[in-house]
Design brief:
It is built from 13 helices and seven strands. It is α+β, with helices and mostly antiparallel strands. Strand 2 and strand 3 form a beta hairpin.
């Protein structure tokens, strides 16, 4: 099977060991401070840049690592063990890279950009939501105002994760001032081409290191920086599935780390009294079963998506059934994350509830609730209900 082959590739396994080493020596070391200060995880992202992971999804022929979506998801999962914010930032960056790789190669500006991405390990943020639109990624108020090869664009974005720390920004807007709300394009901007005026802060319970404040973006750039295909196509083929797969993967990493805490707690209890296994041993078996179910769902969907990318049939990506399954992956994984971390806390006991304990799962549970709220599950469920009315399973 495609994914099994790529995951077991010796070259990729060696890279995973390097990621784990960076996770243990750098990312985990700074995770607590990143969370407490709600600051960007500079040290962690720099460690990923040193491993050339910012261009991991870029084809080898263009200087990247040539990873597929299954491998990228695995890296996100591993990062989730050490710091949810770092893993989320990396996942969001890879979503933008996928959009460029899938839709923009062969166009001079974007080819040159990918070369810079590989060489400089640039970090890409995105501004896809807009004040007044809500979470509807397929609608925009703002518009590209083009004139003589250049354009101006201003957008009020309620959230731009790590906006102040990104090197580049991918933003959506109406194609021009006469276009409908749904007639959108994506644009890729360099940091020197836009200004950010902060309009909201990011003082949240979890994923605090993503620094997802709101901004008014004011940009001036060249029309060659407009993506060559409609944004609706980019969203269906790339942004939507890639986002939910990589997010779910990193959530499984957070879940697995919580289960590891549980395993240690049960092991210690058995050592203290080997003649009487604690009831928590049964709870451990239950929570591990849930983690396996979560991982199986993510793996199956990642494999399906990779097969679709390999087949490159445009109609596959606009299929309602695939969209529904992708949405269900996000809903299921985000709910499973809360369940697994909550069960792990009950196994670990009061130590996991203390913020100042070495066994604290406080950050895990706070991050867990963000997974279902930051892209609200109810809104996704409502969208699914609409798709289901129009879709008939064969």
């Amino acid at each position: 099977m495609h994914s099994t082959h790529t995951l077991e590739c010796p070259e990729f396994q060696a890279l995973l060991q390097q990621v784990k080493k960076a996770g243990q020596s750098v990312i985990a070391e700074h995770a607590k401070d990143v969370d407490e200060q709600a600051r960007f995880p500079t040290e962690s992202i720099n460690a990923l840049k040193e491993l050339k992971l910012m261009s991991a999804y870029v084809p080898k022929t263009l200087g990247g690592l040539g990873h597929d979506v299954v491998q990228v998801a695995k890296i996100c999962e591993v990062l989730g063990h050490y710091c949810g914010s770092t893993a989320m930032i990396y996942a969001m960056h890879k979503i933008q890279v996928a959009c460029i790789v899938h839709h923009c190669l062969g166009h001079t500006y974007f080819d040159d950009y990918v070369e810079r991405l590989v060489k400089e390990q640039r970090l890409i943020a995105s501004a896809t939501t807009e004040i007044g639109i809500g979470g509807d990624l397929l609608s925009s108020f703002c518009a590209v105002e083009a004139n003589d090869g250049e354009f101006h664009l201003q957008k009020k974005a309620p959230v731009i994760s790590y906006g102040l720390n990104a090197d580049d920004l991918m933003m959506t807007a109406r194609k021009n001032t006469d276009a409908s709300k749904a007639d959108q394009v994506g644009v890729l901007l360099s940091k020197d081409q836009y200004t950010l005026e902060e309009i909201s802060d990011w003082d949240t319970l979890g994923f605090r290191g993503t620094c997802s404040s709101g901004f008014v973006v004011d940009a001036n750039a060249k029309t060659e920086q407009i993506m060559p295909v409609p944004f609706s196509e980019v969203l269906a083929k790339s942004m939507h599935p890639f986002a939910h797969i990589t997010w779910a993967a990193l959530w499984s990493g957070i879940s697995a780390d919580a289960v590891n805490y549980s395993r240690k707690a049960v092991t210690l209890a058995i050592r203290r009294n080997p003649d009487y296994p604690p009831i928590s041993a049964i709870r451990l078996a239950e929570v591990d079963k849930l983690l396996q179910t979560m991982r199986n769902g993510i793996s199956a969907h990642a494999e399906e998506y990779q097969r679709m990318l390999d087949g490159d049939n445009h109609e596959d990506f606009s299929n309602f059934g695939f969209s529904i399954r992708t949405n269900n992956l996000k809903i299921n994984a985000s709910e499973q994350l809360i369940d697994i971390v909550g069960r792990a806390m009950r196994i670990c006991g009061i130590g996991s509830y203390r913020n100042n304990s070495k066994n604290s799962l406080g950050r895990h549970i706070r991050d867990a609730y963000g997974a279902s709220l930051m892209v609200n599950n109810d809104r996704i469920m409502l969208h699914n209900s609409t798709l289901l009315v129009m879709h008939r399973e064969d």
